[in-house]
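Let us work through a complete example step by step.
Step 1: write down the sequence.
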Amino acid sequence: MAVFLKVFYMFTNPTKIALACAGIFATIGPTHAQTKPSEFNPVVVSASRFEEINSEIPALITVITKQEIKESGVNSIPEALMQIGNLNVRNLNGGQLGVGAVVDMRGFGASARDNTLILLDGQRLNPLDSGSVRWESIPLSSIERIEILNGSGSVQYGDKAVGGVVNIITRSDKVNPSSIEATAGSFGTFATSGSYASKIDSTKLNVNFSAANNDGWRDNSQVRQGSLRANATHYINQKDKVFIDSLFSSQSYGTPGGVLGQVGQGNPKAAKFNNVGDKNVTNGTAVTLGMVQSISSREMIEGEVSYKDSGATQYTPSLTDKTTIYDKWSFDFTPRYKKSWGAIGDSVLGFDYSQAMGSFVTNTGNIQKANITNRSYYLTHKLPLTTQLDLLGGFRRQTQDAVAYDYKSSTGHSNASKTQSANASDLALNYQYGASQQHKVFAKINNSYRFANIDEYWGMTYDSFAPYAGHRVFSGILKPQKNNTLELGGDWAIANQQRFGLTIYQIDSTNEIRYNTDTDENINSADIRRYGVVANAQLKISDAWSMSPKVALQTAKYTAGAFDGQEVALVPKVTSSLGIFYKPKSNVSYSTYLNYVGSQRYDGDQNNTLNKMPSFTTVDLSASYKYGSWESSLSLKNIFDKRYANYGGYGFVTLPGGGSGYSYYYYPSDPRSIFLTTRYIFK
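Step 2: predict the structure and record it as C-alpha cells.
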C-alpha cells in the first residue's frame, strides 16, 4: 500500500510526472507515427463517443465479441458480463435470463446500479429510479460487441459513469446473414430469437426478435419475456448516414424474495412466505433518430434524439398496497462535434439535454412522482506532445432541475424542488509504442459525480402493528456525489499472439449516496476510499489452445464518520475468471469458464461485526459445432452444483407468523443446469 500511495503522490506532482515520463519514454523504444487497428487494438467508441483506436485511449478497455458470446453459451447479457468480462454481477431473482441484474464495477456494493453506466449504442439504459436495466429489450442476436470501459466516463457521459461504462454495440455497417435459433434447457427454459438483415441500394434494414420462457428453479421465479428491435440506416455516402432505431419489450416475472438465514441455511427453493404470488409486469418502447455528418475532412457532427417510455405494475398480495403502478418516460438530445486541428490535436464539443418523469401510484391512493431536467456541456481535447505521447483533457458541467411531489391519503401532500450542478474533469498522459503503436501506458486524474435517482428522494417507515407493510416517506433531494480518481495503467500486445492489460486506481468519494439500513433513509454518507487493480490477458498457447485470465482486486473502506475504517458491504476483495478455449477444427470449439468471487460482508453490516458471505467458484462448459448452415452448442452451467449467493443482508425483516426482527437473509443463485441451442444461418 505504501508503494501504491507513493506512486500516486508522484502522479499528483507535475515535476515528478515530467521526470518519470522522460525516463520511461527514453527507454521504451522507437517512434511509430501511425496507429493501425488489429485484433488486439480494435476500434472502439465508448471513450470519446467517436471511433478511436484502443491504444489511443488512456483507459483499460475490454471488448466482448459477437463470436465470444455465441461460443460461450451464455443466455443473457449479464451472464456474458460476469462470465466473459469478469464483472461482479448480482441478481436477486436468479435464473439464466438476467432479470433485475446489477453490474458492480470498482466496488460500490449496494449502490452499484447507479455508479456503473449501461449504454446501448451510446444511449443510456440506466433508469431514472432504482429499477434495473431492461436487459431483455436487447436480443443477444443483435449484439456486435460489448465494450467495457474500466474507470470513470463522466466527462463523456455525465451522471452515473463513476466506476465504469458498459456500452452494448448493435449498430454495424456490415450486413450480417439472417438467422434463427432456439434454446431449450433446465427449469422449463425455452427461448427463440432471430435476425433479418438486407440492403437495398443505400438503405440497410435490421430486424431482431427474441422470446423466452423460464419456470425458474425457485418457487415464484418464473419469467416470460420478449423483444422486437428494428433499425434502418440510409447511407448518404461512405461517411454520412441517418438512422432510426425502434424497440418494444415486454416482461412478466415473479419475485421469490430472500431466504432467511445465512447463505446455505433454510430452503433455497422456497419463496419467502410474504412474497408468494408477487409479480411484476413491464412493457417498454423506445425510438431513436440519429445522424452522422462530415462537414469536411477534419470536421464531423454526430447526434441522436431519443424517446423512451416504460410502464410496470407490481402485484404484492401480502401488503396493504397490493398494486403499484410505475410509469416512466425520458427524452434525450445528444449532439456532438469533432474537429481535427492537425498538429495541435483533436477536440470534441458536446451538449446533452434530457427530460424525464417517474411516478409511483398505489391502489391505496398514495402518489409519489418526480420530474428531472438535465443540461450538460462538455469539451475534450487530445494534444500530441510527440508522435507517441498525447496529453488529453476534458471538462463537463451538468445542471439538474429536480421537482418531487409526495401525496399520502392520510397526511396530504408536499412538494420540493432543487437546482444543483456538478462538474467532471479529466487529465491524462497516454504513450503509444511498438509495432503499429499497439502498446500503451497511461496516467490519469479524474473527477466524476452522480445525482440521486428519484427513488432515493424517499426512505421507508414501518408500522408497529404491521411491520412488514413499509411505506415510502419523502426525505428530500440529496446532494450530488463527488469522486476523485487517480489511475495508472497500460495495455500491451506481444507478437499479435498475446495481450496483457493492467490498471491500478484509487477513488475518493464525498457525499456518496447510499442507503442507511439503520434509519431506512437514503443519505449523503461519510467519505469512502476505494483502491484496486484490474488485470486481464489473452494468451495463445498453440494453434488450437488459448486462454483468457482476468482478475480484479479491490477494497472499499470508510475514511470518516461513525464507520471510519470499516469495510463497505457487498464488496468482494477478489473476483476472477479464467476462460480456456480449445478449437481443434475450424467448425468445432470447446470452452471452459471458471469464475471466482471472494467473500464479502452482508449488506447492513456497517460495523463489520457479523459473519461474511462465503466465497464461491463456478465452472461452466460449452461445446459448439458448425455443419453447413447449422450451428449447435451445448452448455453445462455450474457443473459442480455449487450452492451460493452473491447478494445477502442483515436487517429488519418480516418473520413467519406476522412478527418481525433482525435476521440474515440471502438470494440464492441457480444450481447445475444444461442448455442446448441450435441456430440456422441463411447464407
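Step 3: interpret the result. Confidence is low (pLDDT under 50) at residues 1-33, 464-468.
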